[in-house]
Write a structure and sequence with these properties.
eight-stranded antiparallel beta barrel; five-stranded antiparallel β-sheet
């Protein structure tokens, strides 16, 4: 009889945990900060540790698993960030002597693990705080110049890099169906390797002399399920 009771209790406990787990899809805006957003003119981009990044977008998924402490959960997250160049950087690059310029874009893909604590404010509203650490895959796309008359075409092709990432977030869970969150993302600092590819197919392998830190603030709306 005791074995039956213990077995039933175990199944009840597991089913309760399963119900308590939940996931989230979210989307929002990504605002670059620090040197990632900084820069005086187009040639600063990447090569002088400046990003001149514009406001971008983010998409992400999180999975929450409850812990023994009430309202405390483990959280696993995977995210995708996109930032282009700001208008000043594009104007400076377009003012060069080349006919056409392909602007680089910044893609970042952090994977993190952390803790989330949700404090009930009322029956349908919870305020939460979250901290997470993990790794990030950073991928700037190529910067290309082309000219039909006076100059040879060439491009800078950047190699993807992996770095340490961490994040701090605060927000609201609404009616256990929606979320609003403001998140600080430090996605690492990188001295990207790159190749200079000329029209004559000559290639040089180089590495940036200064690191570019990838920092942003993201504001997201999410759906819980």
């Amino acid at each position: 009889m005791k074995k039956i009771i213990l077995t039933l209790a175990l199944f009840v406990g597991l089913s309760t945990m399963a119900v308590a787990q939940f996931s989230q899809f979210h989307a929002g805006l990504a605002f670059p900060s620090g040197k990632f957003a900084d820069g005086d003119y187009g040639s600063d981009i990447l090569f002088k540790g400046k990003g001149m990044a514009a406001m971008g977008f983010t998409l992400g998924y999180k999975h929450y698993s409850p812990l023994a402490v009430e309202n405390l959960t483990w959280v696993f997250g995977i995210e995708a960030f996109y930032n282009g160049l700001n208008s000043d950087a594009k104007d400076d690059l377009e003012d060069s002597d080349f006919d056409d310029t392909t602007f680089p874009m910044y893609f970042n893909f952090p994977v993190t693990f952390g803790l989330n604590y949700a404090f009930p404010l009322q029956e349908t509203l919870k305020f939460y705080g979250e901290v997470a650490v993990g790794g990030n895959l950073s991928l700037p796309t190529s910067l290309k110049y082309s000219d039909s008359d006076y100059y040879q075409d060439y491009s800078y092709k950047f190699t993807p890099a992996v770095g340490l990432a961490y994040a701090l977030e605060g927000g609201l869970f609404i009616n256990d169906k929606y979320s609003v969150g403001l998140r600080y993302n430090n996605l690492g600092s990188y001295k990207y390797k790159y190749e200079i590819d000329y029209e004559e197919k000559e290639t040089q392998d180089e590495k940036l002399s200064k690191s570019l830190p990838i920092l942003n603030m993201s504001l997201c709306l999410g759906v819980l399920f």
